[in-house]
Amino acid sequence: MQRPALSAVAELLKPITWFPPMWAFGCGVVASGLPADGRWPVIVAGVLLAGPFVCATSQAVNDWFDRHVDAINEPQRPIPSGRMPGHWGLYIAVIWTALSLLLAWQLGVVGFLAGVLGLLLAWAYSAPPLRLKRNGWWGNAACGLCYEGLAWITGAAVMAMGQWPDGRSLALALLYSLGAHGIMTLNDFKSIPGDQQMGIRSLPVMLGARRAAQVASAVMALPQVVVIGLLASWGQGGHALAVAGLLAVQLLMMRRFIAQPIQRALWYSGAGVPLYVSGMLVSAFALRGVMA
């Protein structure tokens, strides 16, 4: 049986997508307010679980069940191009699921349960019968929760030896998960033709490109406004001001994005999203200051 080249496997697992959940896990670690001394093995394992394992699994699962859509939108991808022969895309998705569960088991009960939930969301997003991505509201919500909120909560819980994170940490995690719904919409503008043909109702398909860009921008911005208010109410005015400054720059960029959403979605992903995740880390440090 023909085997795929390692380069095709790496492309299937999309390392560039691993950064958001790894970053969110790190934010949860910071937000816990606990010292990292003596916890580095667990922290490293958690970062690996969030990125090269669970997130990579989600990419493999998505590419396998999206192979017909990718044949229209991105025919150069490993599966539709034939560089990932036969059922190897599915085999890798299953193997990476098993490896993720083995690593999650090393993180204790909380880490294992978080890994299981993340993997369930990964399969539910792409695979029948649920295939949540068929609806942009549900699919992007699942991705946002998995990539940001779940990773943040896991980082905080692992640091606390399995204890449930502080309510303030949960609030920030959920707010940034909500904002991530808009970030996920950015990925859908490039796929409009194939999504329309294959019946995938992404927000750009349902609402039109311009309206979807407006909704995505609002969904990214409004949770950050709430975060700013929370930080200020917790006595972290400097951190609140920093997040406000990052948001102000995003708002200026959003105006350009909304004017030409299809042409500038990729640009905003590369330039605007880093400001969003920078605000996450600022917020995590603010919470650490509250707990000190």
Please describe the topology of this protein.
Elements: H1 6-13, H2 19-31, H3 40-65, H4 67-73, H5 88-105, H6 108-126, H7 136-159, H8 167-186, H9 192-198, H10 203-207, H11 209-233, H12 237-259, H13 261-271, H14 273-291
Helix pairs in contact: 2-3, 2-7, 2-14, 3-5, 3-6, 3-7, 4-9, 5-6, 6-7, 7-8, 8-11, 8-14, 11-12, 11-14, 12-13, 12-14
Features:
292 residues; mainly alpha; 14 helices; 77% helix; globular
Shape: globular
Poorly predicted parts: none
> What helical percentage do the residues reach?
over 70%
Number of strands: 0
Q: What is the H-and-E element order?
A: HHHHHHHHHHHHHH
Radius of gyration, taken over Cα atoms and rounded to an integer in Å:
19 Å
Write up this protein:
It is a single chain. By secondary structure, the protein is mainly α. The mean pLDDT is 94. The protein is built from 14 helices and no strands.
Could you give a short description of this structure?
This protein has 14 helices and no strands.
